[in-house]
Amino acid sequence: MSRRRFKSSDTNMSLTPMIDVMTTLLAVFMVTTPMMTTGIDIELPKAGTSAMTGNDHAIQISIDSKGNYYLLEQKLSKEEIVKRAIAMRGENPNLTIMLSGDKHADYGAVMGIMGKLKDAGFQKVGLKTQLDK
After folding, report:
1. CA torsion angle 57 94 128 59 (round to 10)
2. How far apart, in Å, do the first and last CA atoms of the chain sit?
3. What is the pLDDT of residues 44-87, one digit of tens each?
4. Which domains does the chain have, with CATH numbers?
5. Cα pseudo-dihedral 115, 117, 121, 126, rounded to 10
6. In terms of pTM, does the model score above 0.70?
7. How much is the pLDDT for 77?
């Protein structure tokens, strides 16, 4: 009968590869997080000196100075935004909508989308502004 020799293997786990991966992921997140701001570049009007505590889970709708409507960064028609908001309300009945209108935007464009949302049954529709210093 032949004897088999068993090699003794090193049972210690090396943490170096895991630390390298975690360090790389940390660096990637630190670099990309500041670039993840959502929305379009608009200049909000100034109103009031006190801040209202808002809902972090609100839908952000923006109106630029040319009267274009945006849901986050996607340019859509007024009717398409209302349809998508209604679909989102199916998942969350207490959905809040925040409108961000450029200070040079047409008042009718801002009030038009607000009226359509109210007609669709949304009760929590707010206007986003900057604090007046």
Report:
1. 50
2. 92
3. 666 655 544 555 567 888 998 888 999 888 899 999 999 998 88
4. 59-127 (3.30.420.270)
5. -90
6. no
7. 92
Half-sphere exposure of 58 (CA within 13 A, CB side): 20
The residue written with tokens 């952000």 in the block is: 60
Cα→Cα distances 54→10, 31, 33, 105, Å: 56, 28, 22, 23
Beta bridge partners of 99: 61, 127
Q: Residues, the chain, total?
A: 133
Measured distance CA(75)–CA(68) in Å, rounded: 7
Q: Which residues contact 110 (CB under 8 A, 6 or more apart)?
A: 63, 99, 101, 127
